[in-house]
Structures are given as C-alpha cells and as structure tokens.
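Reviewer 2 asked us to include a model.

Predict the structure of this chain.
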Amino acid sequence: MPALRAGHGDRRPSEAGAVDQAPQRLLSAELVLLLVTGSLGMTSLSLALPVLPLTVAETTHDPAAAGIVTAVVAAFTIALELQSAALLRRFRHRTLLVAALLVQVLAMAGLAELRALPAMLVCGALMGAGFGLAATITASTIGSLAPPGRHGEAIGYYGLSASAPAILAPPLALLVLNAFGAGSVFLTGAAACAAGALIATRLRAPTRRVRAFEPGSGLFATLASPGVLRVWLAFACTAATYGAALSFTPLLLGTQGLGSAPVFLLVLGLARAVTRVLSGRVIDRVGDRRLVLPSLAVGAVALALLPVHAALLTVVSAALYGAAFGIAQTGAFVGMLRAAGQARSANVSGIWNMGMDAGFGGGTLVLAPVAAAIGFTRMFWLLPALFVLAFALVLPRRRPGLLPG
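Predicted model (structure tokens):
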C-alpha cells in the first residue's frame, strides 16, 4: 500500500570489509537510480488506489463490492513481502525488481482495458504481487548500497522518495479521472512502472548481499511478544481508517471543489509526511505513548468532522487526520521495537508492513458493504470508533501515573 515502508536488509557488522577512514559518498549514482525506480513503482499504486473502488462500483453496480479488488491488492502485497527473502536467495535483485515492475505494468494495462470483476481481481492480484516484491527489494537493496554507518540516512532518503508519490499521486489520479477517465489513470500508472523497469535495468549488483527479513516462527514470535500484539492491532485499526479515507472519500466527497476528495487527499498526504518526520524526533525525547495517545484522540475528532460535508471542515479534517495517522505510523514502529527489543528490528519492520497492508486492505473490504447498507456518510461516522479502539489498545496496563516511554 501507498504508505512509507520500513527498511529491511541493513547488513550485519560481520559482513563489513575494511572501511576507509574518509567518509564515503552516500548519494551514489546507483542509489539515486534505485530511489527513482522505487518512487516510480509507488507512483503506480498510489494512482490506482483512489480510483479502483469507483471503477469496481461502476463495473459491478454494487457499492458493497467497491473494496474487494483493493483487498486483493493488499493480500498479495503481504504474500510477496513474505516470499521476498526466499526469492532473493535464488535470483539477482535487479532481475526481481525489473520483473516486479513489469508485472505491475501488465496489471495496470489490464485495469485500463478490462471491466469484468474476475479480470479486475486477477489484475489486482498481479498489482499487489508486483508492488510487494518491488517495495521490499528496493528497501532491502538500499541497506546494501549505503556506506557503513549511514544506513539510517539512506533510509531517510528512501522515505523522501516514497513520500512524493504518496502525497501527489492520489489527488492527481482523481484529476485525471475527471478529465480523461479511469483508463487514463491506469495507463499513467503503467507508464510509471515501465519507466521504473527501464531504469532498473541500469542497476549493478551491490558489493554486499541484498537481504530481506525472513518470515517464519521468528516473525510470528515477535508479533506475539508481550506488548507487540496490542500495538500492532492498534496500528491496524488506524490503517483501516486510512484505507477507507483513500478508497472511499471520492465516493463521499466527490472529485470537484474545495471540499472534494482531491483536496482532502492532498492535505492529508502533506500532513502525514511532515508529522512522520517530526514525530520521530519528539518520540525519541518523550516516548511513543505520550505522543501517540493524544494523536489518536485528535484523529477520532478529525474523522468526525469529515461527514459534515463543509468545505473548510474537510480541509481541517484532512490536516488533523493526516497528522494523527503520521504519528501513529511512527509511534507504532517505535512502540513495537521497544516491546520486542532492538535485536528483532528486522521482524518488527516486517510486521509493521503487514499491519499497514492488512489494516488498509481489510478496512476497504469490510467497510464497503457497511457503506452499501447504511450509506457512505453514516459509514464515515463510524470511523472514529477505530481510533477509540486503538486508543484503548495502547493504554498502559498499569496503575494510573506517568506513561512509560
């Protein structure tokens, strides 16, 4: 999903060779090519997600089915994330990255032409598989390309390259939809992935082995660790609201005017990106719960403003909700890492991605039938309850007093 993905694959100290005393250049040509490739792949999915529910609802004449293709995209994204480590042991990272992007080209081209639900489900599966593999390989390869001691800085650049499509592509997709139709949106996404695949062919093999997180008992043991599961469930609840916001605001707000879905999604994306960066610094000083708990309360209020259908309140809702969800994303990763321990950082990275994808896809799948039954306005009135549930899940289980960091 069109969210920032936690980085995998930082090499172990034992794999380091002799390190020159002079600082090595971070933004090498190879790393820049990789960042551009990853950004183009994310642009494709970010263009598709707000348009898919509209297209499915029009194709099936059934609003209850609006989220089904998005849910398939999320399911196959998770499946390929879990298989990426095994695939990297058998194939070169460049081969896999080019193949993943070409699969997305095929999926987007299919969605541009096909208007039968079974065909759209197949295209959704291909899109999710291609995106899940491409995103994981990109993040993992960055860890192998970064100079020793500069992995965090490299992942920061990756975050910036992923933020641009997450901010700009959803509102752009709706503008293209209004002007040229859904087919043009999907063809634009196909072109972005084709350009990414062409750039990826220029990538050279990194000097250190590319690794992705390993699924298995360790992953699920981390999820079951004391304190991790509650944070993960809380994060999945907030991700479900994001899935609803990205997928269904075009159906709730329309696509034209100040109070429309393109404006809402643009403000949301900007607020989310800014707070993801700034909240990390604050959390380092005061602890995750001290910032996350108030943000969840703010998120609930923000979502309650959205169904009022007032243009100014829509913009305010987008800003507050984007900020709250950005803090929730950062706080969830830090909170799970605090509970699981630094040694399990790769597994925390994996389950963070799974929580984002599962919440996003599950939210669209479950909430579309609810909206079909009671209307999109009433369905959006229910979303604050997910933030309230997340608030309850992350409350400390101890006597009242200072919140632990």
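Residues 254 and 323 are 23 Å apart (CA to CA). Residues 2-22, 399-405 have pLDDT under 50 and may be disordered. We have added this to the supplementary material.
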